[in-house]
User: Fold these one by one.
Assistant:
Number 1:
Amino acid sequence: MLLFIPTLIGLTVIVFTLLHIGGTTKLLAMYLSPRLTGAARAHVIAELDAKFHFNQPIYVQYFYWLIQILEGNWGITNTPLYSGPVTQAIEIFFPNTLILTIFAAIIIWLVSIPLGVHTAVNRDKPSDNAIRVASLTFYAMPWYLIGVVLIIIFAVYFRILPIAGTVNPSLVVGLSWYHNGISYPTHILLIDALLHGDFKVAWNAFLHLIMPSVTLSLGVMAALIRLMRGTMLETMDQDFVNFARAKGVPEKVVINLHAKNNALLPVVTNFGYLVAGLLGGVVVIEDVFSYPGIGMWLTSAMLNNDMGGIMGGTLLFGLILVTTSLFLDILYAKIDPRIRY
Amino acid sequence: MSAQETTKEDKYRELKLSMEVFFSNKSAVAGLVIFLFYFFDAIILQFFPQVMPFKHPYSLTPNYVNPIPLPPSKKFPFGTTYPGVNLLTAIIKSIRLDFWLSLAVVVPGAFLGVIIGIVATYFGGLVDEVLMRITDIVFSIPYLVLAIAIGYVLGRTLDSMMIALILVWWPLYARYARSVTLEVKEITFIEAARAAGSSKMKIMFRHILPNSLPPVFVQMSLDLGTIMLAISALAFIGFLPAANLPELGYLTSLGYNYVETAPWAMIIPGMFIVLFALAVNLMGDGFRDVIDPRRRSAL
């Protein structure tokens, strides 16, 4: 838990270093609206100089920059997707990414744990081999290809799921709580529609969420099934499991109660990697499905050489991962009595 | 019989046993065969491009007269993709770039990581703590995002993609090398060397390093595939601004606007990425069996 603060400082140092390779022009570009010219531009530059102290040594500048970041002054982003303050862009795009990753995490949890247990219990049987081949294939597949295959199957061939976006545009025309592709108040269309009692829009938004979240989960699931299978096999060899069997506990209870719960421990430790995988996948998958979240914003920032978007996204993803690992450490200490901090 | 001959014979027997273990694993052999196909493709196009009937071996040849993707036919066995690129030749050209690029990321990344991991275990204490904290920090940013950020700073070119991926990948090896080294350090022969009065430096580089390298090599062969996935993902989202670059991810992205009418334009180049990643994974698993003493004794 003590490692939380140094990691956080290291993260900001990395972002700050990236900003300062090649001078302060990049930092200026991040806080300066490209539309400003002449005297107004010079005035804003002078204002920024007062905030960031560009004439001070670099390590002093770091602290001035850190103060601005802590005050929520993350710069300006200027992409076709959104142009305005970075913090506002995060406020608009992050909820979409959040619901996507939550959906994906639920699918992963519901599918990969039982499948991992199943493969371990039915070791080397046909179902085990089939699942292993499938998970290895998904593991070796680029995320966008999984998405494309799903699009071809469900959107082009069967025509049951929509290809891209968050909602069918014709459904949201003239709604009082939906402007310019942004829904209010939570910015998550599915939840907003439910709040306003518009079930038709909610159902449509849900359909739009299925393919991106399934793609995201398939990419990450493969590794988790492998891990679960490995730890489950290890656990089922241990003495306490054999003892439970020997004293006459039914096999089902042995597997689901004794072995599974203990095999879950390493999976929980690796949950941080799962979140990292999800956040990395989001970048590509939101792009494939034109789903307006942080990932698509980041890609569009990259294509438009927009410093604010790239650094905002990097800092945000870093913060999420660091915080997640902190929570996992606490959780791990709670469920594993052998670990005490 | 001199001692020299005995060791030679031992080495030969050792090699024979390793080969037996590897070739008894059918899927690993299949992986190796596929890997060799990619390898020879890369070698031939890199060093003997005149062997192949290509006018432009290092760029795609678009045909704007007929830019719409055509389905596989006799003339175009894999079909064409936008803008009129023959997929078969484009894939042959792309494999060269992808293969060398993944190698150019894995080898320096592993080198850097192993050095840092070994330095961390060698000095221990504060140095170890600081180095491992740094790997934690790099791990705390998803690698695609970090690569995008580094790409912005260095300019989005092929070289900066390579550098970005190396910078993102070394912590993995640093951690891996560290864990392997710590494991090897506990084996009795190290204690024997210490008891015999070997210096710390000698133990580190003569005894521990050679014994921790095989697992790192296995990890490297597994990572070749992962890195190709990362490269193609970066190319797909548009990291490389240069058009006409023969790269599998870029080739896949060319067909993206035609996914409804011409699915082969994405599926076929994509399959070649999957095939490589799968082959390398199976091959790596085979290598892991070779260095695992439990598997060896089972044979």
Number 2:
Amino acid sequence: MPWALLAPSAAVAAVIAGPMVFLLGRALLDGRETLLTLSDSQTMTLLASTLVLAAVSSVGSAATGAGLAFLVERTDLPWRAAWRIVLALPLAIPPYIGAIVYLHLLSRGGVLDRLIGLALPPHGLAGSAFVIALYTYPYSFLLTSAALRRVSRSLDEVARGSGLSSGRILWTVTLPLIRPAIGAGLFFPALYALADFGTVVLLRYDTLATELYYLLTAFYRRSAAAALGTAAILLVLAFLWLEARLRGRARYHQSDASWKPPEAVRLGRYRLPALAAVAAAVVLALVLPVILLAGWAYAGAVRPSGAERLWAASASSPWKAAGESLLLGVLASTVIVGLAVPPAYLRVRSPGWPAWAIWALGQAGYALPGIVIVLGVAFLTNTVAPWLYGTLPVMIGAFMVRYISQGLRAVETGLLQIPQRLGEAARGLGERPVRAFLRVDLPLLRPSVIAGWALVFLNVLKDLPVNLLLRPAGFDTLPVRTWLSATDGIYTQAALPSLLLIACAALPLAILLRAERARGVAVA
Amino acid sequence: MRSRLHRAAAVLVLLGGILAAAFVPASAQSAALVVYSGRREPLILPVIERFRQATGIQVTVRSGGIGELANLVLEERGRPRADVLISNEVSVLEVLRREGVLQPYMGAAVRAIPREFRAHDGTWIGLSLRAHVVMANRERLAEWGLPVPGSMADLAAPPWRGRVVMPVFTNEYIVAWLSALRLARGDGWTEEFFRRLRDNRPILVAGGTQVRQAVARGEAAVGIANHYYYHLQIAEGSRNLEIVYPDQGPDGMGVLVSPSGIAIVMGAPNPAAARRFVDFLASDRRAQEFYAMANFEYPILPGVPLHPDVRPLDRVKRMAVTYQQLGELRDGTLRLIREGAFR
Amino acid sequence: MTVQTSRRPVVVLRGVVRRFDGTPAVDHLSLEVDEGEILALLGPSGSGKTTVLRLVAGFERPDAGQIWIAGRQVAGGEWIPPEARGVGMVFQDYALFPHLTVAENVAFGLHCLLQMERAPRTEEVLRLVGMEAFAARYPHELSGGQQQRVALARALAPRPFAVLLDEPFSNLDADLRGQVRQDVRAILKATRTSAIFVTHDQEEALLLGDRVAVINRGRLEQVDTPERIFHAPMTRFVAAFFGRADFLPARVSRRGLETEAGLVAQRLALQEDSGDGDVELLVRPDDVAIAPASDGQGLILDRLFVGPEIIYRVQLPSGRVVHSRQPHTATLGPGDRVAVRIAPGHPLACFRDGLAVPAEADGADAPRPLPVEGGAQTVVP
């Protein structure tokens, strides 16, 4: 078995490690520039501001997600089944679109200002953390919901039997049990905040990613940018360590046959405030943006200005872009999740440093600003496999670097729930390892694989840098269409592709939610 | 069970087929001219379409931020993929020229372009001109009791604290402008101006689009950007805006006028087509008219009419700089920016 | 242990070693299982017995030693992966495939058969374990005992050379366990299947095994018939592992074995004058007779009422405690003084340095008489 696992895992590792080794090499080759950049007091300031953003957005995101999950899973909140779905939907909206929307709503002279004379410019730390938290909380929500659903009622009853109050039970029993989920819920927004460029640049907050971007695009100091990229990788490793600490030695709990949902907490007079909180999350993250985008799209269609007409005339059809986005999403997520299975298997069934290394590389890929990955992939492909350049496989390779971590997590979570004995039983019955895997593990793994597939699909749909810079000529996906119009401020033209993007993203999201509800698979 | 395996295999084969098909367009289109364009798509696509109709040469365009595209050209230098690079700001082309990734070309049409708007060695040519100006929100000026600024230097004065919006200092337009200031006023003056401007806490945004929106919303009283952003904002229906060509007095240094440009990439896979493309753009009057009318830019070819709302260039006092000078000063300016902890 | 031609060993282990992080879990273990034989692997938890099973199945590779299955070497030299060994495995938690029905589970290992032969074989095996009515059910719809049967059926279906059972009854309720044990033994015997099963329950091992192999810390202590394991333990460990066992120090003298509970007339193959004549004598509760006596050397500490009989804990002058079995009518109570006498109806096992000391003139391998019922005569006042 190890070879059947090691070979594809090594191939995956090579693809993911490629751009990072390239980055490291560039940083090391120009040691002076690297030292200069890393010792720069400005770099330290930016490191601090990046960490602050990561901390604030991840705490905000995880707290929001976990709180909503608790309300939906453990209380007698009305319409819980509907909230369960609706609350996950903001995952379909790219945060940079959220940033544009909130700039228009809250800025001076924005919608709110004109309506009630109130301007709350969403700039700087507060605004950036708000938008990032608003569009990453569904991770924490889905993870915590799944974890809460796995906590058995008997534990609750034992605790109650020993005379604990509901509050104490939440604190001493439930919270520790869902701690791994909360840890993962903290981890995602933190990594996202490291990598994000679009949101923070629009909301005027400087991080390592913006600095890296300016080093590249203004100074053309590619070694310095590589040095910052390396620093980002180190940060990810630190985050990984932190998350591992937070997770402790806890493992995923699988509900057994006797599992019963714990009794719902009666909200009583808090029913209305709770309902308001849940509704507020949905309105802020979903309803307002969609209304604003729809309004723009409508205005652009009904009474376009000259510039808008110009855009409308020249831009390729957003419907074609939607088709290409979906095609790309299906292809990329299928390849990526397929390839995530062997390393995930390796990590769960024979843990050791190779498996850990692949996993850590995947996490680093998620947290690296997209542009460094894209440029690294461009250089490597152009040098090593020029005939591949500008084709979909290269895009898929770059997506793999950025998003395989999501597939890995989903598959791993699923594998942890499948007893190793089943595979051994199959081999004892005369099946070779690969066929034993295909006949036993894979069918059982299906919900997790589907969940991972949907997650990668979502991210591929929303991704900007890879879509923009590595697309084959003429392959204009929805984020490209959105971005090209939005950077020019022609929001009426950005609106339709954005809405289509959200609609397309709703598709994998629906699949995700179904997979997640079918077997209680943790999604990430 | 077995049929399920077969079905999975069929799906894999299908996906493999689609993936394989993805290779085809790349090889089939290898004869097409590849254009990396940092210019806004609606401004370049119609021109390219007419080039295609005129010459029968297929063109594939990759639009994106010019900074990213320039980096891509640098990463690809070992095996160039782009034939032509179109930049919204000529200083990027100056950077690439100095990196040696641009191919000089001096065709007849190129020579017809005024000498000051093309590289002396023929590595790039200008396509259109833009003036670096100030736009003001009249209501905010009145509200905050501010005068219409007569000079860029005014904006570093205390009354403008927090009232100015401008692109980040590393924005190519700003870098070029600061280099021009160094030429016009000297390093000492520029550095001092800088420091005061920085300490005045201007609102720093990503680019001209954000500047015009911030001024139109009244977030700031004035904004520093290229002139056409004002006209684009007016075209979107803003009524409270005013455009200011600063430093126009007898002692004024004038405004910086700089071109957008086009260049052939060194080692371009289709050099012949690339040259035809440059010739076409350099001589295409309709493209020039289009830039003037749709994007309010100054045409580069003599005799092409200007948009009636735009102040004619002959009534604008311009800074006396060459783009080669700006290119040479660029590194020093960036150092200044970095040391001043500007962004 | 030599391979005799009359016996046909199906599974053979020779000097097998398996280390985990340097510490041996299985230490130079040699073992044989004959055709149609049920071997019980018995040992405390952590003794390495499950590792032995996994070595045979092929889920672990030995660090040294060889393993043969049906005359073919499968480990230590030639390596045969688990799927090619032709052994069936029944896991402690049964490891039924949750996504397959009972019939599909049983048919899982029949991939070598033609499609048309699979259904009859599945049906046949299911009938054998009495589960034919449940063929279309899914594992989670079955009780523990039923799952157990399905797991056995699945292991038996491909007609393996041997079936390996890992603590097969430990997940069953006590009242169900007895019945299932008998059923499993009957099925294995009916199909003449060789089997190794792992257990930590000595009663289960004695009841089900044709032979019992006792393992301690990865080493084989003894492998023998249940009777001999019980009555002629080769080591102090084996003796202690089966039933309630007390060890009394005894001095070997010309008259027999002198203990603080009196003389035991038994001669050992030891030289009395060898100086180090001290041995440990294994006494089980039915070897210890007690009688009320105000000047007796024993003091009753406790009486444990276990239904048909009473077990007394009796303290000897040295402070050592022995157990004595008495009928349920005994009336002695804690604090009573009693005379203690070792009164076995058979020779007692003696140990020196943890190993059995053979009795004089008695070949170690010669069969011993079966125990006499009620070996310890009781004195009831």
Number 3:
Amino acid sequence: MEFDEMKKIWDAQNNQPLYVIDEKELHNRIQVKMNGLLHLTTISEWLLILINLGTGGILLGFNRLKPGTNIFLYLEASWMFVLAVYLVSHHIRRVKAGRRFDRSIHGDLNHAISLANYQMRLSQIIRWNFLPMGAIMIFSGWEAGKLLRVSAVILVSYTLAFYITSKGYRMNKRRKRELQVLKGKLEAGI
Amino acid sequence: MTEKEQLDILEEWLKLHKGLIFKVVRAYTEADHDDLFQEIIIQVWHSIPVFRQEASVTTWLYRIALNTAIKWTKREKKYAGAETLDNIQHLLEENRTQIDDRLTWLYGEIYRLDEIDRSVTLLLLEGFSYKEMSAMLGISESNVGVKINRIKKQLIAKSKNYDNHGI
């Protein structure tokens, strides 16, 4: 082979992609991200459901055992039970929706994005749920003649919950953006 | 220069000249493509603020990529065996389905040359002049000429084996 021939072979590679993405490795990484999100979502869902059921049950029991009935405590317990049911229905819908994604790179990537979206929605639900719950608790404190003490506890709890849910929201937003960038790159063939 | 401007330039250069970096990576390492690629990108990133447009972007990138690859090869030789394969995760793999076997052979032969000869061969195949090669590699033009003659003869002789036996 003459050197000119080698040069032609060399130049021909400029018209072809020299490297392709290692799809297996990329898929592994996406699956790790997706499984992490799935794990986190499932844990936070069940934790919220159990907390609401448990706290609602305690409030109900406490209200039944102590002398005198506080209607707002019943309302609070009912609110928590309704929220727990709402979260269970959300969980069922999410699991069903998750089955629609195929196990391809794009399927897993879309699943991971939908999970990040779901987590963001969950953070918002929890954050805004504290407003009606706090209001009911304040009324309950007012009826029991402990308005100031209850209001202070509500204020501290809401601030803490707002901080935690905001942090979770931002973290999931960042995750979602990363995944969307990756999806955009894959679709653009970069 | 702001970080945003630097990033825009890097993205633009990568979009236009990524292939050039891949060629250098493939000529200088057989296994750690991803690591060397990243190392070159880091060096290119650091070089952007000092790029004065006295040379073309291609020449500039070749200079950085080759210098990085040469240093990398020396370092890898020194620490050969220190890293386990478990730590290396490649996202990029050779597009073997589309590559001409003769090109694979050519890369193999280039890889067997010493560091400077590899650079000379890459630049020669890319069509750089003796003067440009001399400036990039820091060796005299006459030295470049001597090396090119020797490398050409060597490659042509080895290609005869490939033509005859397909190896």
